[in-house]
Specification:
This is DUF4288 domain-containing protein. The chain has 222 residues and is an alpha+beta fold. It is 37% helix and 17% strand. Strand 3 (183-186) and strand 4 (191-197) form a beta hairpin. The longest helix is centred in the middle third of the chain and has 14 residues, at 101-114.
């Protein structure tokens, strides 16, 4: 199916609003031994957590937050290693398990803010765009669909195209798309916003703001 794609704008952000819930803040405050977290005013929870975190050594704090979010995905040794690496590198951009990069970004930025910059500052991109079918009915698009349709508007220098050229340009499955796109939102299946790492998509990657793309049915591997 043919689509008309318009990239409206890309916002570069240091954090994604709404990722951390009040319950997350309360649970983390308890893990950082902050008393009476559950009875604190909700609007004060982020600031209280920053204060509680800063009482710990940076790598210790990283270990606590990593364990809270990723203990089912990573073992203790991996968590300890990442907690040290985070102080040196943007682990959220380099970690080989792509589906964990989004969570690592949110953890990194929580710690970056709490320690006033001891952790590297990573950035996310919020891409606002529309994808309108030229010759068919509107349908909800998946992360895989969206990345394949964006292909014609992205520079050849774009990291996704360099690492996943076949998946982006050929009619084959692209399971990594779900990890590259952290959030995909739409209210009408035409106008979308997606959240990803600035490392994956940024303003310099865009070679055209309006272009066409073709979405084919994926041929499942037998």
């Amino acid at each position: 199916m043919n689509y008309q794609i318009i990239i409206k704008r890309i916002d570069t952000v240091n954090e994604v609003e709404g990722y951390w819930s009040d319950e997350d803040f309360i649970q983390l405050l308890e893990k950082f031994n902050f008393p009476d977290a559950a009875t604190a005013e909700k609007k004060n929870l982020p600031e209280l957590l920053e204060m509680a975190i800063s009482d710990y050594e940076p790598n210790e704090a990283a270990e606590i937050v990593l364990a809270y979010k990723l203990s089912e995905e990573l073992n203790e040794g991996q968590i300890e290693q990442i907690s040290h690496n985070m102080l040196i590198d943007k682990v959220c951009e380099e970690y080989p398990e792509i589906h964990l990069q989004g969570t690592l970004f949110h953890i990194n930025q929580l710690l970056f803010k709490a320690y006033n910059g001891k952790f590297p500052n990573a950035k996310a991109s919020v891409v606002h765009f529309s994808m309108t079918p030229v010759d068919g009915e509107v349908k909800e698009l998946t992360a895989e669909n969206v990345l394949k349709l964006l292909n014609n508007g992205l520079s050849d220098r774009n990291l996704i195209k360099r690492l996943f050229d076949d998946q982006m340009s050929k009619n084959i499955p692209f399971p990594e798309a779900e990890g590259i796109i952290w959030e995909l939102n739409t209210e009408d299946n035409v106008n979308y916003s997606l959240v990803t790492s600035e490392n994956w998509i940024n303003n310099e990657d865009i070679t055209a703001s309006e272009f066409e793309g073709i979405l084919e049915e994926i041929e499942e591997e037998v």
